[in-house]
Each structure stands twice: as C-alpha cells, then as structure tokens.
Amino acid sequence: MIEPLVRNRLHYAWIVMGVTFLILLTSAGVRSVPGILIVPLEEEFGWDRATISLAVSLNLLLFGLCGPFAAALMDRFGMQRMVVLALTLLAIAVGLTPLMQTSWQLVALWGVLAGIGSGAMAGGLAAMVANRWFSERRGLVTGLLTASSATGQLVFLPVLASLAVNLNWRAASLLVAGIALVMVPVVALLLRGRPSELGLRPYGEDERSGPAPTPPGPVPFRTTMSTLTSSFRSRDFWLLAGSFAVCGASTNGLIGTHLIPASMEHGIPEVTAASMLAAIGIFDLIGTMVSGWLSDRFDNRKLLLWYYGLRGLSLIFLPYAYGTGSFGLVLFVVFYGLDWVATVPPTIRLTADRFGRERVGVVFGWISAAHQLGAAGIAFAAGAMHSWFGNYELAFMTSGFLCLVAATIVLRIGRPSTGTATPLPVA
C-alpha cells in the first residue's frame, strides 16, 4: 500500500510530516483534558486543587523524563512501533478515567500511565522527523510540527469543554481515548523512521547522487545516559535546558493547566474559558510557523530573547487583564498566543547546530525533560498557591519574571565563556 505513495511526485517526507502532525495533535488533545477536568473533579469528588495538580504535575514530569529514552527506543525498535505502543497506552489510560473513584486512581491513570504514554511518543519526535527527513525547510517543518499543539487546542478544547458542561467530563475523556485508538492503524501503515527505510534521501538532497546512506546504528540506553553526561560538560546545554525549563513553567505547566479554572473564578464560563485557550492556539499556530521560518534566516538566540521577553510581560499583565474586561484579555490572548511555543523551533535549531543532527533527538529529549520539569513544578506549585492564597496571581507573576530571566541568558548560547571556549560533545 505504501509503494504508490513512495513513487508519487510528492516526496514521502511530507507524508511522514503530516502523520507526525496528527500524532502530536492527538497528544495535544490528551494534554488538553486536565485543564477542563479540574473544576468538575473538585465538585464531584471533593478533591482539592493541589491534589489534582499533583496528578497533572506527575504527568508532565514523566512526559519529560521518558523523552530521551523514547528517542533511544525509537532508534532500537523503530519509530513506528514505539508510537503505536504509546498511542495504545494513552487510549487505555484515558479510557479508564471514567471508572476512577479515588484520587490515587487519578494519579495512576493521568499521572503515571498517560505521562509515560505521552512521553514515549513525543520525546524529540518533531526534532527527529525534521532532521532525518528534511535537509531543506527544517525550520519550517519544525514550526509546523510544533504548531500541532496549538491546533490540538483549537480543535479539542471547545469540544471537550462543551461535552463536560452539556454531558459530563467522562464523555470528554472517552472522546480523546477513541481518537487515540483511531490513530493506531494510521501510524502502523504510514509512519517510517528514516528515508533509508524506503530507499530515499531526505527532502532537499539530490536523489541522483547515489543510494541512500546507511543510517548509524541504534542508540542504546548507555548512549542516552552518556549523552546526558557529556552534555553536562557543555555550558550551552545548561543554557538551553534552563531556558526551556522556564518555557515549560510559562506554558503547558501554568497556562495550559490552570488558565481555565482561573478564568472561571473571574466569572468566565468554562466553555468561554476553553475558547480563550483555543484562541491562544490560533495565534500560536501563526506564531510558531512564522518562528520556524524565521529560525532558518535569523540569529536564533535573538529570536529567543524576544520570545521570552514578550511572554514574560504578557504573564505579568494577565492578573490585571482580568480586571479590565474583554479588551485586556484579548490583548493577552494575542501577544501571549503568538509565542506560546514559538521558542521551540529556535531551541531545536540551536540544539542541532551545537550537538549534531543525528544526536538532536536524544539531546533535545533531555532538554525537553528540563522543559517538562519546569512545567511539572509550576503545575503543582500553582495549585498549591491557589490552595494557600485562594488565587493564581503569585503564580502568574512568578512565571512572568522567570521568562524575563530566561530572556537575558539565551544570548550566551554558543558564545565562549571568559578565558576558554565551552567544550562541546563531538557530533
């Protein structure tokens, strides 16, 4: 079935990119559910927000920690098999959610199983596809794949919120589980890990220049750990990981998890609040694709400076926006949305440039782990702050100031420290 597609004039790299986009979109749909469930779970089971946030925090943490090992497993067992396994695990975890009765079951299903399932297929997947299948348009492809999270918000959030309000939160969970199951045969039929598996070269390379090169051997777990050890000796790794941790603490860990319940506390209905988050996704879709295009043409460090700086100002403004009515919230949605994940294409590009295209999956997997560590920390901290102070103002302000700090450190990436140059791992 796949042979006619390979012989088609359209390079198969674009088909792989399209399937990967759908995979990441489905993963985004799963990650959209907790923000919608917080208030319904509080009302039905009486769990406090810190307890629910703990499950979300564990989910985000495992999502990040599984990433580097997922890259190694994809090399050893194949991208296709790993993604099929991950989608199946997600479908099981989310599908069992309507049966839970106690908070430990929430932690087990959403925190552990869904976290491992998400991390097993999302750890560096966009980076691996963009760098293995494309010699040209890598920045654009990375932007498109990164924008899948925004598209997921746009597609899923209003629908899931409407189901939660008009039916119940269980219907929203079952819908996401069903979509994950539908994606399994699509991945099994169409996804491939490398062009060489089909006798092709990456998009942009001359097909007439000889047979496709033999890919390097699989990355074992010891190489995953040794990559981390060698990366620790690079200051650039710490700058990339540290700034990306702030990225997680200012996006899916805070806004993705807590914006809907925070908006409901200011009198905004749940479906409207979900639509606000979906609207952020619309502007993010634009901003991320433009960011991918820009990352092919401009200094990626300067792009990150602008992205983190504007995001920090937007978050500091958010508590005041709630008091200004719709005008202030529209301003927040537009400016925050434009760089929701616009930081990803420049970060991937800098990682590939500093550590090599073949190692980008594993190295970026560890950098993504830092992203999720930041997200997990703020997801729980924001819930705990709400339990203590009764609002999210401190969480929003703290995250905003962290973004301003990140904006000041990204300019040092790739520059030698005083005296000697930073030693880099050999690509």
Distance between the termini: 37 Å
Order of helices and strands: HHHHHHHHHHHHHHHHHH
Beta strand %:
under 5%
Q: Overall 3D geometry?
A: globular
Q: Helix coverage percent of residues?
A: over 70%
- Please, how many helices? 18
Structural class: mainly alpha
Radius of gyration: 21 Å
Stretches where pLDDT is under 50 for at least 5 consecutive residues are: 417-427
Question: Can you summarize the main beta sheet?
Answer: none
Overall pLDDT: 81
- Count of beta strands: 0
Folded structure, characterized:
The chain is mainly α and 427 residues long. Helices cover 76% and strands 0% of the residues. It contains 18 helices and no strands. It has helices at residues 3-7, 12-45, 49-77, 79-96, 103-122, 125-133, 138-146, 148-166, 169-190, 221-232, 235-249, 255-265, 270-295, 300-321, 326-338, 344-355, 360-389, 393-409. Helix 2 runs antiparallel to helix 9 and helix 2 packs across helix 12 (255-265). The longest helix has 34 residues, at 12-45. It is globular, with a radius of gyration of 21 Å. Residues 417-427 have low confidence and may be disordered.
